[in-house]
Amino acid sequence: MSRPIGFKHTEATKAKMSQKKKEWDKVHPNPMEGKHHSAEAILRFRLKNAGANNPNWKGGRTELAQHIRESPKNKRLRTIIFKRDNYTCQSCGQISGRLEVDHIIPFAKILSEFLKKYATLDIKAFSFELYLIALKYKPFWDKKNLRALCENCNRTRKHSGTD
Hints:
Order of helices and strands: HHHHEHHHEH
Oligomer: single chain
Number of strands: 2
Structural class: mainly alpha
Helix content: 40-55%
């Protein structure tokens, strides 16, 4: 059963739920309560799921994407796009506020194409070289593919590359 937004339980209901939770906890105690993993165990967990062992691993592309996005060239380009679009959201018309630079063709798609083009270079062994090549790869820096959007419009739009 879904409750309307802003729904509040009565104090009596809260007390009942609290009592039921206490009863549940007596029957089903948490085996880790009061215990902590050792620093060695935490390190083992981290290493076990690091890099290619992690189910979310994407081949090291996140690090390259971060370097591109944080590059001085990208920071200058953002300023140029904001000025070009007169610090106005190109979707809803909001002036100033929390503006972001949006890629009409998604950045992730451009990055995938870039990595396919340079697939002969191992992303880990040649990360710096790939970064330098990316700084000259025109699709990353195409001003026609960039626009200023407010935070809300950028979050709600579908990244199909067509809108």
